[in-house]
């Protein structure tokens, strides 16, 4: 029963993590590229390298934040209930 209770908490943490990761990526990109927005794959005036570097950086940040949020949530759940939410 406790594992079922973890699902909504995990979903909320994932949404908040996505928001946090988006803000972090935007801030890092602004600092590195001195631009407000990262390039998208369909912008014709952007170089392949620029688009791919932005995508790789975004993926790394999102992956890092997701893993950190998921792990912290699971550890918190374990401390609160005594069971791992697998």
Describe this structure in words.
This protein is an all-alpha fold. It has one domain (10-37, 47-81). Helix content is 77%, strand content 0%. It contains 2 helices and no strands. The chain is elongated and about 55 Å long. The two termini are 12 Å apart. The model has no long low-confidence stretch (mean pLDDT 92).
Cα-based radius of gyration, to the nearest Å: 17 Å
Q: Span between N and C termini?
A: 12 Å
pLDDT average, as an integer?
92
Query: What structural class results from the helix and strand content?
Result: mainly alpha
Relative strand content = under 5%
Integer tally of domains: 1
Number of H- or I-type helical stretches? 2
What is the helix/strand order? HH
Ranges where pLDDT stays below 50 over 5 or more residues in a row are none
Residue share in helix? over 70%
Largest sheet: none
| DSSP, total strands | 0
Shape: elongated
Descriptive key words:
86 residues; mainly alpha; 2 helices
Précis, in short:
By secondary structure, this protein is mostly helical. Helices cover 77% and strands 0% of the residues.
Q: Secondary-structure blueprint of this entry?
A:
Layout lengths: L1 H32 L14 H34 L5
């Amino acid at each position: 029963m406790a594992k079922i209770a973890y699902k909504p908490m995990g979903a909320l943490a994932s949404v908040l993590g996505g928001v946090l990761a988006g803000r972090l990526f935007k801030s890092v990109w602004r600092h590195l590229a001195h631009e407000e927005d990262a390039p998208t794959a369909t912008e014709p005036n952007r170089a392949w390298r620029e688009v791919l570097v932005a995508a790789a950086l975004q993926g790394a940040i999102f992956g890092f934040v997701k893993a950190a949020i998921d792990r912290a949530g699971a550890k918190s759940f374990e401390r609160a209930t005594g069971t791992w939410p697998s």
